[in-house]
Amino acid sequence: MFADYSWSELGSIFAMQGFAGLVLFSVFVLMALGLAIIFGQMGVINMAHGEFMILGAYVTYLTSNFFQAAAPALMPISFFIAMVLAFFASGALGMLVEMALIRFLYKRPLDTLLATWGLSLILQQTYRTIFGAREVGVTLPDWMMGSLPLTDLVEIPINGLIVMAITLAITMAVALVMFRSRFGAQIRAVVQNRPMAGAVGIDTEKVDRFTFGLGCGIAGVAGSAFTMIGSTGPSSGQLYIVDTFLVVVFGGATSLIGTVASAFTISQAQSTMEFFLSGSMAKVLTLLTVVAILMLRPQGLFTLKVRR
Amino acid sequence: MKTDKNGAAPRSMLRRKLMIGAAAMALSVAVLPRVGLAQTPPTSEVNTTGLAVTDDTVTVGILHSITGTMAISETGSVQAEKLAIKQINDMGGVLGRKIEVVQEDGSSDWPTFAEKAKKLLVEDKVAAVFGCWTSASRKAVLPVFEQYNGMLYYPTFYEGLEESPNVIYTGQEATQQIIAGLDWVAKEKGAKSFYLLGSDYIWPRTSNKIARKHIEDKLGLKVVGEEYYPLGHTQFNSVINKIKLRKPDVIYAIVVGGSNVAFYKQLKAAGIDMTKEKPLLMTISVTEDEIRGIGGENIEGAYATMKYFQSLENENNAEFVKAFKDMWGQDIVIGDVTQAAYLGPWLWKAAVEKAGSFDIDKIKEASPGIELTTAPEGYVKIHENHHLWSKTRVGHAKADGQYEVVHETTELMEPDPFPEGYQ
User: Fold this and answer.
1) ipTM exceeding the 0.85 mark
2) Residue A51 at interface with chain B, using a CB cutoff of 8 Å
3) Domains in chain B and their CATH numbers?
4) pLDDT < 70 positions in chain A
5) Which chain A residues are closer than 8 Å to B109 by Cβ?
6) pTM for this structure?
């Protein structure tokens, strides 16, 4: 298939394809991080993860509408304000859900699957009632659209660069919180041994609530970022949920570094195969590979030793 | 149409006033039937099979998804059907009977569609059903309509390969939508090579098959790539790179649903400026409805082949757009399928009046040959195969989310659900 092309053409295509793979990697990390915290650290199977993302997207939509109408001068930075608001909106909803629903189900992890699936349906219908069944168009600041032409063929999409930057920032922030802060130490303590953590004076219920809120908040940021590359509609969250679980489970649910590694593996495999095969075949092969590896390593790529 | 509408308004006002005064109640009951008596044939004559038809009402069903992922697309169809029914009622109804609606929700779930269709036909005994959107939902209800002998008016453009006496297809089958558009782009834009792209299910695959045959066999041009992505796919960077490498003159895109938004946003971000038309993008899956989600600025410059655009300039359409906006809100947009859904109740009314009966078998027989001169798209006519003769148009997407019509076939395109040489 390459016979007709010159070396420089091939070189630029490989450069662009490499970049496409990196963007996909960032997207996977961003959508999986929140779930990795909730599923990995708390053992809650959160089927409503996609809907928390879409809440972030709708917050971005409302914010950008607001700035367009009220303060057009601030439009160029409206997106980042929206992102912060999305974090707090999704995080707050997450904490509310934890308080009203999830905390009664910690001893029954499989029931969280059903409960959060129901929650996802409720949220979808709520969005449909409030925002209408149709997808909404989120107006982005002009500078975030378009691409940077490097050569005739190589063009770097600006929104890809922004997604990568956001992912990097969020991942570092999560790593800092989890491994360098007092709150992170408490989260890890509760995960490893709940009664003992309680015995040394950690308010485990409060830690649970904030952990769930943190995971949902990150989902909101992801949703906000994805308004650049995807759709914003009541059921758009469903587009992400399968890939998200795939990344988290493949990486080894309890390990954040595993999530990153798994996102990298899956995204590179998928974007390479998409280039050589058709889109549907690439997806099939990716899923087959993941299934095969999980059969050999049921615990995922990386595991932490956790007391059971 | 106009005089009737104007004439009907005061009458319904009068009736409302009469209804308010309890004393006048008896009067209204006594007077109103006599007004309609002249054109109202007795129920025993127009309804021999036990449908839900009384002396002054007839019940029809609307069966679309109000909830679930398809609600995004089907909402417009429900709105159009309700508008048409309201207008027909304002004109005095069908055979002197007001249309009453039973609405059911298919919930974007195909077995639910079949179940609700059965409920509408068996329990409600509706005289006609306006509904379904995806081919999957239509395939699910088809056996129900054939078994219980119902009448379905189906609004969506679809892949063809079907013909049922119990269905009137008010949208285009694939050849009507595809062939004229390809001819136009080859002749007017000098396109030589095509890259076919679609979501991975029956409609895009069948449509691209027809497109490929037409491009290669009839036009003698080249297809340089054909590819499908799963429904809901959100990452199109790889295929965009492939398109850049193969340098086709035309990207022929049949991407649907949420994928659509991702595809056009990423296409623009990757530096493919559709207004430069290098490559040119042609689609058969993006109506004005979808552009609202995609954003006009992301798809400006693309071409779409449809039979209807909101911007069509004719009197019928001006009236239709105004009535639609008055009923459903000023900032609403109207896409191809919405218009096709609007035709359903009107075609049914015409068939009932031609047959002089609500009986399904008589409507089936009366339907072929029925013409509608008041259609927003212009003139349409029902073919022997229960599809519509209609024109194909090419629209050029503008930044404000509307299409500018740049081409229109001079003749009506014949519906051909089983096209020879294309399968």
Assistant:
1) no
2) no
3) 39-171+314-389 (3.40.50.2300), 174-306+392-408 (3.40.50.2300)
4) 1-5, 303-308
5) none
6) 0.82
